[in-house]
Amino acid sequence: KQEVTQIPAALSVPEGENLVLNCSFTDSAIYNLQWFRQDPGKGLTSLLLIQSSQREQTSGRLNASLDKSSGRSTLYIAASQPGDSATYLCASLGGGGKLIFGQGTELSVKP
Amino acid sequence: GAGVSQSPSNKVTEKGKDVELRCDPISGHTALYWYRQRLGQGLEFLIYFQGNSAPDKSGLPSDRFSAERTGESVSTLTIQRTQQEDSAVYLCASSLVIISGVSPLHFGNGTRLTVT
Questions:
Q1: Which of B98, B111, B114 to mutate to test the interface with A (most CBs of A within 10 A)?
Q2: pLDDT digits (tens, 9 = 90+) for A52-67
Q3: A31 vs B35: CB contact, 8 Å cut-off?
């Protein structure tokens, strides 16, 4: 059974800092690893998708990496801004089509 | 284009009543997921559809929960004899395909269910 874990559960940083969010998964037989953002009271917004054959994906100030052998993914946010404050979730898509989520990292970027 | 639409956005119901939640996926998306998110907790997988078929129903919490999808489009999640522990936000998501692993999920804004 796939288990996805995110560390830390919460993170507070001053504006402008670079930061890394961590995601680990127990079953490396995945199709992809996705990162989402969730704002309070809202649904989830897809940020980045890394296919199992890829090592990383970049979008603007965001860079996500994937290491299947170690069961890890990281989301790097450069030059953080207050607007980046949200909960960030990673999810792995495995056999059978199940997309399993971590518990999320609640990020707060202070002006 | 239109995103994933869920209705109602909010539902308050009395314990013991049945409720039906609706999800309209993005047109052409063959995969559809239902998740539950309790207050302060992560997303709990309930069920997914590939076309109109649900290959894996093991995430449904009890036999009071059922879901169907028709026309490879709209899906309904039905909860019978609601209990207070059913109170949560129910999120629906769709994607173009599943198995290729190339299609991201698009989420609706959810239905907030409160059972009193």
A1: B98
A2: 999 999 999 999 999 9
A3: no
